[in-house]
Every structure is written in C-alpha cells, then in structure tokens.
Amino acid sequence: MENIINTDRWGFKHFVNTSVSEGFLRDPIIMQGMSGPRIMRNGQSFINFSGINYLGWQQDESILSAFCASVMRYGLSTGGSRATQGVCEAHHSLEQILSRHHGKDKTLTFASGMLANMGFINAMTAKFNFSSTSKIDNRDTVLIFDRDCHWSLWKAAAHLKFGEQLLTFRHNDIADLERVLGLVGSKKAIVVFESLYSSDGSVAPIGKIIDLCERTGALSYIDDANGFMVYGEPQRPFYEEFKHINRADFIMVSLSKSIGLEGGAISANAEFIDAFEVLSGTSIFTAAIQPPTAGTATIIIKRLHDDPSIMDNYVYRTREFRQILLDSGLPLNEDPSFITSVLIGNEMKAEHVRESLEEEGFCVPIFRYPAVKPNQAIMRLILHKDHSDADIRCFAELLTKLLKDIPEATGRTPYVI
User: Fold this and answer.
1) Within the chain, what is the greatest distance between any pair of CA atoms?
2) Which phi-psi region, left, alpha or beta, contains residue 361 (left: φ > 0; alpha: ψ -120 to 50)?
3) What sign for the dihedral angle of Cα 167, 188, 232, 115?
4) What are the Aminotransferase class I/classII large domain coordinates in residue numbering (predicted)?
5) pTM for the complete prediction?
6) Given 80, 125, 201, 257, which is the most exposed site by the fewest CB atoms within 10 A?
7) Would 287 be classed as within a structural domain?
8) What does the alpha-carbon distance between residue 143 and residue 164 come to, in Å, rounded to a whole number?
C-alpha cells in the first residue's frame, strides 16, 4: 500500500502554499559557471554586487592549480570525522597559521563559520561527563550578545533562558554593555560580538569592549567573519579598532569572505580548544573542511600576509566605490567599511528597485525583515576587485534614478536576502 505522508498535519503544505502565493518563497537562483564580478543566469550575464568572494581567488590560475595539487595529495575528503580518523596535514597547517595570526595557543577548524559559532555556544554552556571524575558543567554561564549578532549565534543560544542565561546590549553601545555586565555581577559571563557586521557594515569598538571585559572578568568572543585579513594593518581604515582584536579570548573567522573558500575556525588558549574538540559537537559529529580547501586556504592566507598590497588595493577601491555612491546622493551606512549598504527603508520599494536593477543586468541583494528591522530594508553591496569603473558608474547612475522614480509602496513583497 502506498505510504502517503499527510503534510497538512505538520503545516508544511499550508506554509509553502501561502509563502509562494504571497511572494515570500521561491526556488533558488541557478548560476551557470562560477561566481565573480559577473555571473550567468539563464544565458544572461549580470554585473554581480552580491558575491562575497570579492578577491576573485577562484579566477586566479595559481590558486586553482594549488587546489588541484591538494586534491591529488590529500584527496577529496578526509574520509571520516576528526575523532574517528583524524585530520590531514592540510588541516594542521591551516590551524597552525591561524594560531600564529591570532597569537593564540591553538585553533580548531570547522566545516563552516556557522558551525564554529554554534559549536562555541554549545561548548561554553555544556554539562558533560566522561566519568565520575572527568566532567564539566557550565550551565551557569551567562552570554551577553550584541543585539545585531549573526543568526547562527542566536540559534545556538535559543535553548538558554532569556533574561537569565542570555542577555543583550544595544548595538555597539559600551555604556549599555557596562550596565548589563553590572547586572551579571560575579557570574561567569561571555560577551559575544562581531568585528564587522554584515548587514550595515558597522565596526565594533573592539578595544573598548575588551577593556570592559578585562575589567569585569568577563570572557570575550569576537566573530571576525567579515573583518578577517581585511582590517588590522596600520595603513588600512579602522586600525584603532582592529589592532585590539587579538586581545579577545576567542576569535572566530570564516574562510568564505577574504579567503574565498568555505570553512570556519576558532582560536583560543589550548585548554579551551582541546575541550572544544568534544564539547562543541559541531566538530566531532560532522566532517571536517575538505583537505584541498584547507590546503588552499593556507596558501591564500600566506599570500595575503606576504603581499599586503592585495588587500590594500581592494580596500582603497571600496573607498572609491563608496565615494562615487555618496557623490550620487545615495543614502549609505555610516561606517565606511568595505560592506556598503544603501538605506531604502520601505520593503516593497526595495524589492521593486531590485527587480528593476535585475532587468538592467545587475544582481544585488536586498536585506529585509527578519534580517533587519521591519521597514528598514537595505541593499547590501559587495564590490569585487575586478569590477570596472564603467560597472560602478553605470550602477550608481541607475540606482540613483530608480530610488527617485519608484514610489514608496505598501503590501506584501517577496522576502529576499
């Protein structure tokens, strides 16, 4: 007899039908070929301001050759978890270079930055015992989040009781963080924040947050997914903020932005990292980064270390990009980081602007609720190092015109990130 699943019982059929009819849900866009300054969709070329692999490593023949060489040496996968079979030399080398970069004892790599974040929260709030003597209980940990922290951190902390185990402070607000730390008192506290926030491009007051943590005895966890290898050098913007980053107790990085691959890592003192192997759960119970990815990431990190002009040139280019948009009269995010957000507000207008840009051959992402607050929609733009002056000026002129011509609107529109 045919087994028919009654999806109505679970609510999925109703959810999908209503989400599709109201424009909130759609099939993912299928690209033809690789992501870069331009992408192909359905045979049409688009100038792409959506991609996060902005240094174009996958268009670099020497990097592609290095990746292929790693495949031939290490294979496509490790063939098991860290616990059952271990990791290969490529993982070990990557973890060593990250430890040196951050001035920490050890580093643990994960298959993604999201798994790193979730594993950290799991580990720092865990109760676990191997035996009657080998055990740990940190259920009394209090996490203090910047309110704009990434979804992965909020998801990992969803099981914690808000107001007791999980507290928040206003975005980048030192005075409010000090107030919250005063409420925590002598409890074990961890302040969780990002270096550079992905929606509005705002930069955290890193040194001031760590100063406050050190003064109150709280630990500090910084999600450096967006800032890793971009900021921190004296000749680049935000040096006064990023020069303090290695003072954080825990530093998480993503390999999907400046490195252009996939994976995540946490660097910290050895006793934490050794325990995270088991307590994170997202390391021991899943596959590691693919070996060729680990090997190639190490090569890219070394190249960025050895040739700072690569990132210097990119950061300078993003400043030029931002100035062109400002000169066009476009409303932008306050902090001049490489993440450039155009402030639109009305969600339906934002979607109409996106559709109009797409018709003219531009691929741009709109961030809407729940990614941002309701009716505070933004267009987040990531400049690729190979975007031309013509690409930028044509885009700026068109976007300026559309924002003037398209009226504020009401009604439901697709939720697109």
Assistant:
1) 71
2) left
3) negative
4) 72-392
5) 0.93
6) 80
7) yes
8) 9
